[in-house]
Design goal:
By secondary structure, the chain is of the alpha+beta class. Helix 1 packs across helix 9.
Amino acid sequence: MKKIAFTTSALLFAFLTNAQCDSLMSKSLNTFAISAYKQVANVKANKNFVFSPLSINFAMRMTEAGAQNQTYNEIALTINRFEDKQTVNQNVTRFLNSYEDKGDYKLKIANAVWLQKDYKLQSNYTDILQNNYLAKAQNVDFSTSKNRKRTCNTINKWVSTETNGMIKELVSPNVVSRDTRLVLTNAIYFKCNWQSQFRSSNNRTHKFHSIDGSESELNFMKQTEHLKYFENDTMKIVSLPYSSDIFQMFFLLPAQNHFNSVETALQLNSLTSIMQKMEEQQVEISIPKFKIETDIEFTNLLKQMGVIEAFSNNADFSLMTSRNDLKISQVLHKAVIEVEEKGTEAAAATAVIMNLKSAYMPQLKRFIADRPFIYFIWDSANNTMLFAGRYVMAQ
């Protein structure tokens, strides 16, 4: 599997240059990322979270490849609204092939298809999955409770391998049934050191003010470096680069008592404008060490974003199977991120389960993240947000 590296920020589309993937694909991915972030924020009220919009997007693109008519239109408008219908799958191929195998970072993006052993898919559809998504259909069995358990173990073993053990279970026997015919999975794993690593000897205990008004003493990492930085009356933004110059992690710190208004106002165009104003500054940055794990059932969130028919008995997946008897049952997503002195390690996995229809340098700037903040990991090679989340409650 090709190694790839990622960072997050829908904020930076058009700000970062030298994109290797199609600019319309970047715009599609980042627009989806901002929309998805807001949906997750709504259901994870006053909670920390992390997710990979790229993982969800790629998993849904695999389902879109088998859809037609209104089912296709709803998915396309949500997932890849700015792309030409004829190039959506080729864009994924270019994206997956855009990274070089380098030792200073690791990013794996993997797709897989798990197919009921006696169920047939259209040959054109399986060709798209294999040629564009590098996903070969593997026969499994959902027919009995015992077989479903065995199949879930097989899928979870694949997920664990592709995420370097960060995600050990994505699907469980209670989310599949005898009516399950197809499970489409995507996994992303990222690991990269900071360009300038934090020294543990500089760590200090600092008070963090959680979104609910409580206060906690946390272990903060601290360093002073020349970093991309911007601030105004409502927020501060700093970019922390990784050892590979492809990737950066952005920390967005709303002003005191402005977190909710800043988060609600997140928009791709306005954030891009702010990011373009970032300049090299000498910044004292202090952020807490953290590890966040998030489990999200994305079905209702996708419905809120406009994907409706695909989950109903009116679903049209006739390019997937000539029987046209499938609908999406559930979309499951799990993500983990760990930020510490050396760098960042993160992983995410998504499963789409398909059942039968019956079922600069002036004065020193200070960026002290001692209150709720938003973070993004961003891939500047492809102008794409790979991971996003927020830290609002001390852990």
